[in-house]
Write a structure and sequence with these properties.
- The structure is a single chain.
- The chain is mainly α.
- It is 75% helix and 0% strand.
């Protein structure tokens, strides 16, 4: 996606684009940061709404998938350029992956502390499984026009929960 194509599609003047973004990479960085900020807000909300790690993962990932389900095709194309090429600011992708991994590590670590990780699953392995599946699902979504992101994310969530977490014991009535 060239600047000329973005300007034409957005129906804005060349100068207007460059008043807001010095380069296409700055636009990509803005799109990526906006997406990441919204994702982190969803994760923070998931922490306050869910105590069970499986439900916390499900809440976070499913709400992100729902947000992506109906995005503008041009926004999706820009995310695709960013996800595939890493064209924006040097190590922005690495920092965002580290932040995402830290949130997932906290969920998996909380599960471990509560005795809810399956035997043989460590915090590091559990974190990498979740992050890897999410990144793969987002990449597939970014590349396919009719990718059913919500259905695929539901399948990912089911796999994560079945593979990593023990079912928490039912709450006992006092």
């Amino acid at each position: 996606t060239s600047v000329a194509a973005i300007i034409k599609e957005a129906d804005i003047a060349h100068k207007t684009f460059f008043n807001h973004f010095p380069t296409k990479d700055h636009l990509l960085e803005h799109v990526a940061c906006s997406f990441a900020d919204n994702a982190y807000a969803t994760f923070r909300e998931g922490f306050t709404r869910q105590a069970d790690p499986g439900k916390r993962i499900a809440y976070c990932l499913l709400n992100i998938a729902r947000a992506l389900e109906h995005v503008n095709p041009h926004y999706k194309a820009l995310l695709n350029v960013y996800l595939i090429s890493g064209a924006a600011a040097g190590d922005l992708q690495l920092r965002q992956r580290e932040q995402f991994s830290a949130v997932i590590r906290q969920i998996v670590g909380d599960a471990d502390a509560a005795g809810l990780l399956k035997p043989g699953v460590g915090v590091d392995t559990g974190t990498e499984v979740v992050v890897g599946l999410c990144v793969a699902t987002l990449l597939n979504w970014s590349l396919e026009d009719a990718f059913p992101i919500v259905a695929k994310m539901n399948a990912v969530i089911a796999f994560i929960n079945a593979s990593l977490f023990l079912v928490p014991p039912p709450a006992h009535a006092a």
